[in-house]
Write a structure and sequence with these properties.
It contains 17 helices and eleven strands. By secondary structure, the chain is of the alpha/beta class.
Length: 475
């Protein structure tokens, strides 16, 4: 498989302090793809950037130092110092790169094995590559095959059953530390998919008050509304069922179920008050609430810390109780110096490993089945790719034209004498050879000079044009 490689680092090879130096949050992934396309060193490129990995999949012929080339570009996009130890990066080539991607899509290479988010993240990376026009024939085929492998693992095994995401694992760890989350006040920073998963897990734990903070207040408001819709619908059904049995003042069941002080509670400064248990605030209002919370979970896409020592150390010092902070963002959202405060207990995404290992133990028996599914897809992809090699295609083209020639000679040859039939046979052989000479010479030269993706795409068109796959299966 000429030229296909992946270079990256993940939670297995590097701690969060190293991973965050090479993470590509926000629009950095798109900017990197556009730069790589402009320089045209790689024929195709896809970047997969999540909280636990930064990987670059690429198709190239001869690049002397692809790792140095990529690190140089990342260093131009963000102030990432050169790594002292490049062993934290891995590189897989050919079929090993295919196998790695399929394992990633199947959540076998995740920190939380079997988690649900990674397949969506792989789809998002593919969408970015398509938009940047860096995913061409080979990566298009490869990614769609990876989606199929991930889906098969989900549907044919129980690897994902009872599995928690990183966000859910963070909530579970917080529950173990605090004994319970019921009635606790929680500050959730961020409003993306990871934050939403954490919020839903918090509500299931009976969190007393949830404060959602986000750079865009409208997005925080939308998340809060989405979280409350199921609960409000459930409450409405309960109210309707109880209305005839327990009417409130003046026959109003809502007032009967409403706390006496519910209408007197005022929203926090700078926040917009929502139905019970949820508030939203902007990031600049964080100092006004951090001293009143029991737990902070932060998961934004910010390239810089959101909770800084300079802005918040004084607020935490004025807090009488302890504050647990779960920083599950990469790059990290929380200034590590805040952990030096006596009442602040800071945990990063790497601290989830013990909890994740216990969760994996319950599903370990499904891993071999999932690995078998992945390997089956890898071998199917290999067999498909083998059909697109130039030499076998040239042989099939010759067979196809010779079969056509023989069929026509058999049909019309009886109209000729034996001597004439021999001459007809030589004539048709020579004609087919001359007709194929140009196309076959083109294919041979093209395979040596053109990018791998263009060669594969051209061969596939030829095979489809002459239905060579059917001839291949008949052999």
């Amino acid at each position: 498989m000429r030229g296909l490689s992946v270079i990256g680092l993940n939670h297995r090879t590097a701690p969060v302090a190293v991973r965050e130096q090479f993470a590509l949050p926000g629009d950095l992934t798109g900017r990197l793809l556009r730069r790589l396309r402009q320089e045209d060193i790689f024929q195709e490129t896809l970047v997969l950037d999540t909280c636990n990995r930064t990987e670059v999949y690429f198709v190239a012929r001869d690049v002397p130092d692809p790792l140095g080339y990529l690190l140089g570009h990342i260093g131009q996009l963000k102030p990432a110092p050169p790594p002292a130890d490049t062993s934290v990066f891995y590189r897989y080539n050919g079929l090993d790169a295919v196998r790695h991607l399929f394992r990633v899509a199947a959540a076998l290479d995740s920190q939380v094995v079997g988690e649900h988010q990674i397949l969506g993240q792989v789809r998002g990376a593919y969408r970015q590559a398509v938009e940047a026009r860096t995913a061409k024939f080979l990566l298009n085929k490869l990614l769609h095959w990876a989606f199929r492998a991930g889906k098969r693992v989900r549907t044919e095994t129980d690897l994902s059953r009872g599995c928690s995401s990183v966000a859910q694992a963070a909530v579970e760890m917080a529950r173990q530390i605090l004994s319970t989350l019921a009635g606790k006040t929680v500050l959730l920073i961020g409003a993306g998919q990871t934050a939403e998963a954490a919020a839903r897990a918090l509500l299931r734990e009976g969190t007393g008050r949830l404060i959602v903070a986000n750079r865009t207040l409208a997005r925080a408001q939308q998340l809060a509304d989405d979280l409350l819709k199921p609960q409000l619908a459930k409450d409405a059904q309960a109210l309707e069922a109880d209305a005839s049995e327990a009417p409130g003042p003046e026959g109003c069941p809502v007032l009967a179920r409403q706390p006496a002080d519910a209408q007197s509670e005022e929203p926090a400064s700078g926040s917009s008050r929502l139905p019970p248990r949820t508030d939203t605030i902007a990031l600049e209002d964080l100092p006004s609430v951090v001293s009143a919370v029991d737990l902070i979970i932060s998961s934004t896409g910010s390239a810089e810390p959101v909770l800084t020592y300079e802005a918040l150390a004084g607020e935490f010092r004025r807090t009488e109780g302890s504050v647990i902070i779960m920083d599950i963002a990469v790059p990290r959202d929380v200034d590590p110096r805040l952990a030096e405060l006596p009442n602040v207990f800071l945990y990063s995404i790497d601290d989830l490993d013990l909890l994740v290992t216990a969760s994996l133990d319950r599903r370990r028996q499904e891993v071999p089945r999932a690995e078998a599914v992945v390997e089956d897809e890898v071998q199917q992809f290999r067999r498909w790719l083998d059909t697109l090699q130039v030499a076998p295609t040239i042989q099939l083209l010759r067979q196809h034209f010779n079969a056509l020639r023989e069929a026509q000679v058999a049909r019309y040859g009886k109209q000729f004498s034996d001597a004439d039939r021999d001459q007809l046979d030589r004539f048709t052989r020579n004609l087919c050879g001359r007709m194929l000479h140009g196309p076959l010479a083109f294919l041979r030269g093209f395979s040596e000079e053109a990018p791998a993706s263009e060669v594969l795409a051209t061969v596939e068109i030829i095979r489809r044009m002459f239905n060579l796959d059917a001839l291949d299966r008949d052999e």
